[in-house]
Write the structure tokens for this entry.
Amino acid sequence: MVRRSLLILGVTSIAMGGAILFLSHQTSTRGPLADSPARNPLLYAEITASTSPGTAAVLPEEIRLPILVYHVVRPSYPSDSAAVRAIAVTPGNFDAEMKYLGDAGYHIVRFGDLEAYFASSTPLPPKPIILSFDDGWSDQFKYAFPILEKDHYPATFFVFTNAIGHRGFLTWDELQQMVRAGMNIGDHTRSHPYLTMITSTSTLWGEIAMSKQILEQKLGIPINEFAYPFGLYNSDTISLVKEAGYKSARGDYYHEGQSASHLFSLPAMNAPTTLSALKQRFP
């Protein structure tokens, strides 16, 4: 199992691997949030060993369908920490990565396509790949969304509801605009907690199910996909995700093979931050 450690963004060195940004936003009464991950002292980085070169092995019962996870897409700043640089993709690099995937014959599919494949053997195109974005940063709308729209690539944006509308995060209007353009919105809980550390079933239900209801009421669409914060889950969280009515859930960061038995713990990987790294991982 992939090993994780939690580091404050201000550290000067980090373990090898990708990093996952998150906001420790505990209540909706907290004051205004910083407008950039690089300048927000509440941000942390979770390090995962998910960026080794080459193609991961796929077990016989699995299909190879990488799920890429993007966090920060924006220009780089001199003040960016090492942890931010480990996951930040500049708009130019993101545009080049999207062009490369198309030129190399990869087909961008949705989580719903993977769900239909396992449910009814609906065929998938050759070399399928899923694009996803975590946490709902406003920079994703400003820099990544126009490129996705230009290339006609669907992507899923996993948002946690307590942050929506706060400075530095997506607004409800921006989410609705992306939905109209064909993007999918997924649930990332209400406050981005460590779900496996919560012992209260009612609290877990609020994070997993109530956030789904909020998104569905505000956006007027079904929310079918869930992403566990930090990729952490256990049997209790999986049971509640199923009970809440999701059709799949994205889990850990270590593998690119998907199977029906892991539909509620789909493995993913942090997206390479440069075109050369993407080419190395996806030749």
